[in-house]
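Model the whole thing, not chain by chain.
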Amino acid sequence: RKEVEQDPGPFNVPEGATVAFNCTYSNSASQSFFWYRQDCRKEPKLLMSVYSSGNEDGRFTAQLNRASQYISLLIRDSKLSDSATYLCVVDGGATNKLIFGTGTLLAVQP
Amino acid sequence: GAGVSQSPSNKVTEKGKDVELRCDPISGHTALYWYRQSLGQGLEFLIYFQGNSAPDKSGLPSDRFSAERTGGSVSTLTIQRTQQEDSAVYLCASSLRLAGGDEQYFGPGTRLTVT
């Protein structure tokens, strides 16, 4: 089983749609969770951290379910500029490394 | 301020040659990471450095790969006797300290092509 698993997509959605990405992780000792965004042929950049209580940043909402070892990202009112690969990232527990999922590709269509 | 920089941005080399990739982390960041990303794949952890501690080399795929970090700042990733399967984008990242909760800032990467 992969340490971090994501649906690779692609998710093709029209502008204005709401889209949700899911991610599961295998290490119950993980304490830190993130969503990174990676544009085509660019480096990953932090989109948002994920907190136990859930958190929102504008159109983006992240949720964490520790019991199920599941993380989600919800994007409301999708924009063309949201088109990118979204990486689910989890710390490696005692290893102090970040483990990156392979990413979910989002394509927002006009 | 200045972000993470990497050089060269692109490198084409012949199979069997050695290559050196350089990373300049953000000033004051004590942790430095190397990853590689093959086309359409996720990030593969290679190695990280934290201050003066021994680096975690657990992700290096073979003994042809090595890395150094001089003076707690600049890092060099060396690949000896390159193979075609080494072709990938090599990404460097730094963070303020070594802790899972710290955001990692990535450089633009070095695209390595082994012919």
